[in-house]
Input
Amino acid sequence: MTTPSGLPVDSYGQSLPLGLDKVFGAMNALGTLWILALMVLINLDVTGRNLFAAPVRGVTEMVSISIVGIVFLQLADTLRTGRFTRADVLLDKLKRQSPVLCDALQALFHSVGLVLMVVILLASWAPLAEAVRIREYVGAVGDFQLPVWPVRLITLLGLLATAVCFLLLAWLDLRRLFQRRSAS
Amino acid sequence: MSAVAIALSSLVLMLVLIYAGLHVAITLGLLSFIGVWLIRGDAGVAANLMAQAVSDSIASHIFGVVPLFVLTGFLVARADVGKDAFEVANQAFRRIRGGLGVATVAANAVFAAITGISIASAAVFSRVAVPQMLRFGYQPKFAVGVVAGSSVLGMLIPPSLLMILYGFLSEQSVGALFTAGIVPGLILALAFSLTILGMATFRPHMVYLNGQVQPVDDTDLMSVPRMLWLMWPIVALIGLVLGGIYAGFFTATEAGAVGALLALLIAIGRRKLSWRGFWEVLIETGHVTVAVSFLIICANIYTRMLAMSGTPQALVSWMAAAGLGVAAFLLVYVLLILLLGTIIDSSSIMLIVLPLMLPIAQQFELNLIWFGVITVVAVEVGLLTPPFGLSVYVIKSTLGNSVDISLGDIFRGTAPFTLTMLAVLALLVAFPSLSLVLLP
Output
């Protein structure tokens, strides 16, 4: 969707500098494959324990820890494609009546998102270091154990990607705002 | 400022920011961060709480299967399972006034037993049922209204994404919640059908373009074997998934994975799924899941902030001091949900309202399974109410330019069904046994 001036109405779904949209897309694809793997894993467990009395060990633990990895792998791409939940009522009105104000508001909102991501990112370093140091794991000793740090690391990378995405979206908003003003 | 005052002003600010268009998850995260900071006087504590929410709030087995329930919904939508159900229902109800409308409701009820997301229902039936109704001289407004109204069955009749979410938040059994949704779902489907019948009988202009009941076309009927051939995948899916749960082969949460695999096999077996289509479904599944999950993460710190401020307890004692009983609480609760439903989507409403309201419901010793059914139905009304009604938006974008109907007209066409839903909601509130009858 574009406005009469030929500029897009918002920053979603566009290519980003340094091919970062491709990077986010690749992370997203990885998360997608992970979802499929979960499906296969749970079905193997259900079939195994009902038909062959041979359950797959640790599926419960893997499912509960996987969802965190999946979400953070896909967070940046979900944001980039404009799929974060929001109320569009006011923004849609502004898009028609005052596109410049809409751009400014979007830039502000994306900056707020950036700040929040950075705060969480900074606070997430310590738990990662701790998980590595004390060899934190899920599951029970002697049965099934899964280290926690890989998922913590993915979470951190996902947060970083999302923060960068917020930054770029805000930058696109501002650039469009100035292009719009110089066009009119 | 006291902790309760901080929490309450954050609630007001939240409504303002959400309306302004700040992403709902960011709003929740930001205000909770500031709230905890002010209450504890320490930004570090607030940041650590948030980091903790990120790592542990969705790390649960129940929540881990959400993407699989979403995947099942999109896969069965691709497999034309809904289209087949509609064709069979269409033939079964062809002699009734407003028959195509009733057929849409019936097909939606069947489809709802496979899918747990309403947007899948809305998308499928705007593609399948709307063109058919237009061809037979129905009002466009009515056609889209029926599709929007009956799409809510998707998340009431099990499986249901909203029930999983509620079970997760309230620590109730998802299996029990699923069971509790069956009778209310059937009542709602029946009420929709009666509404259509009533409109076709007493207000035919609302249903038909020229106000006349259309002649029945009996020339091109399906044979019974053909109908069975169309129905078997649906029957097999429902039978295996629900049967498997109640026979104890797998849990209600694992059913998401079993359903997804079966839906995948059916879609492949009927040659409805290309590699490209499958990939699109997977990407879409990821985006829907992530949007909900990120909301949950941010709502989790908001819940902690509310608990820290003591607001739920303050509200309980305030309600007791004002002499408000259960009835008043339920009224306020439902009204609040309906109000929020006009601007935000279903899962956001639950995540915003439940942390505040569940402690009060527990205080009143309400049955939390029944409370869940009430919550889901009330939340789902929000799918249909302007200015933001998700089902209506999905229908509009699915129809695209193929049918010339404005967003406003879709909302107007949906209004009779919204009112029907409110009536059923009142019924469910008044008679808890309707929701609890199938439970042991």
In short: The mean pLDDT of chain B is 88. The two ends of chain B are 48 Å apart (CA to CA). Chain B is about 75% helix and 0% strand. The longest helix of chain B spans residues 275-309.
